[in-house]
Amino acid sequence: MSDQLAFNWPTGVALGPDDFFVSEANAQAYAMLGAPDTWPERKLALIGPKGSGKSHLARIFQSQNAGQLVAAATITADFRTDAQTIIIEDFEEIPTAAEEAVFHLHNNLRNAGGTLLLTSDKPPSLWPVALPDLASRMQATTVVQITNPDDALLSALIMKLFADRQMNPQPHLVQYLATRIERSYAAAADIVARLDVAALAQGRKINKSLAAELLDNSD
Length: 219
Description:
CATH superfamily of the largest domain: P-loop containing nucleotide triphosphate hydrolases
Helix content: 40-55%
Distance between the termini: 39 Å
InterPro entries: P-loop_NTPase
Number of strands: 5
Number of helices: 8
Order of helices and strands: HEHEEHEHEHHHH
Number of domains: 2
GO biological process, one term: DNA replication initiation
Strand content: 5-15%
Strand order of the largest sheet: 2-3-4-1-5
CATH topology of the largest domain: Rossmann fold
Radius of gyration: 19 Å
Organism: Yoonia algicola
GO molecular function, one term: DNA replication origin binding
Protein name: DnaA/Hda family protein
């Protein structure tokens, strides 16, 4: 995995390794997902804010390790799999009825030397797991975090969000936005979406003037 950008992409957005931008905010997570042999008991919890790139990294990891990816909310009480690399996304949404199945999955992977990657926007200590044996194993999982975006990542993210909407803003607009919005993944997604909607509704170009109006109206 080389120079690339972190974001939880909506449907239709590029999710390949070359679409992921590495910065200080996600470098540790990026490196650890590239070295599952170093994970204690070969399990890892990838934690970060919504929109920070967890799903993107999970899909890169899945493709590079022939893994099976499953959304926690879809796991049922009779869930079974022979896959040796499992990625469970949004683990905090695991149904109570599925906890025993996940407990057995965890133990089977550990006994077989398999790999387990979990993603969430909350640390394992805050996951609402009712089954004590599963809760204790999840809380013992090694955690790597994606933090809020630094300047480089925020600018790259804004550019990528525009590109995914088939828009090519001037660099000075990206710079203007990056210095005026909240430094978060959600804020970047919000301003790009609002600019797109406003430009279409008003028949205007996406530029600094329109951005200033939207940002002023947000105050």
